[in-house]
Every structure is written in structure tokens, then in C-alpha cells.
Amino acid sequence: MDAASLSRWTAADLRQAAHAAQSSRNTNPVAAACPACHALVCPGWESLPVYFDQNRLEPVATLRSPDDDTPTVEEHHPDGTHGWSADAPIAPDWFPYNRCDVWRCRTCSRLFLRYTEYGGYYVDERVREVRADLIPQ
Ligand SMILES: [Zn+2]
Question: What's the 27 CA to ligand 1 centre distance in angstroms?
């Protein structure tokens, strides 16, 4: 599935899906400690580990606007967090969320955001677990 065929989620869509995934984990202790994606479970952004088998995740949606070729690089940190903070808001209208796709663990349905950071001399795949309580209203 390519990115163009993914449906675009709003902050509300993302929050609802994250809540649903969270409540299914609460009733399923096996999924709470998922062997498939535990390497990615981290509160802030991380580089995708090179050894991680990406087939464990499936794409479900995108946060990118189809009409915006140059989304803002401004970040949203009203409470003094920074880009790597564990409690930084997950704000789909702001960098880097505005260039993320939403992925789901095929085993436990946990949701992750992914985007590719293009530095001067490197390309870095970044991943962050979606936590519903960090998505601004
Ligand atoms: Zn999982």
C-alpha cells in the first residue's frame, strides 16, 4: 500500500484510534507486553532500530495533508517541551507530525507514528508510540 492510498486522519481520528488500541490492551495482558513491537515502545521519538522487522507493522493512515507540499517545520510546544520530550504533544498540524504516517502493530494493534528525517548527511527513520493523552484537543 502506498502513501497516496492512505486515508488522512485528523487529531480526533488519531485520539479515538489510540484510545481503542489502549483499551484492548488493558483487557489483554499478552498484548500489554507485545513481543512484536516492544522494541519500539518508547514515549518520545526514537530512530527505528535497524534490526526491527518492519513487516510487524502495517500502515493505516496518514497525517499528511494531500494539498500541502511544504508543511510547516514549526513545532508545537506550549508547555515548554522539545521535539524529543517524552511528553511532547502529538499535534498533527505541526512538525514532525504533519509528515507522519500512522502504523499499527499487526500483533497488538498498538499505534505508532513514523516519518523520515532528512539531515545533511543522513536519513533517519523515526518512530513514536501514539499516546491518546498527548494529542491536543
Ligand atoms: Zn505490538
Answer: 14
Report the separation in Å between the CA atom of 127 and the middle of ligand 1, taken as the mean of its atom positions: 14
Distance 30 CA to ligand 1 centre (A): 10
pLDDT digit string, tens, across residues 53-71: 999 999 999 999 988 889 9
Instruction: Specify the pLDDT at position 31.
Output: 65
For residue 83, report the distance from its CA to the centre of ligand 1, in Å: 24
* Concatenated DSSP letters of the chain: --GGGSPBP-HHHHHHHHHHHHHHHHT-HHHHT-TTTGGG--SS-EEPPTT--GGGEEEEEE-S-TT-SS-------TTS--TT-TT----TTSTTGGG-EEEEETTT--EEEEEEEE-SS-EEEEEEE--GGGS--
pLDDT tier at 74, thresholds 50, 70, 90: very high
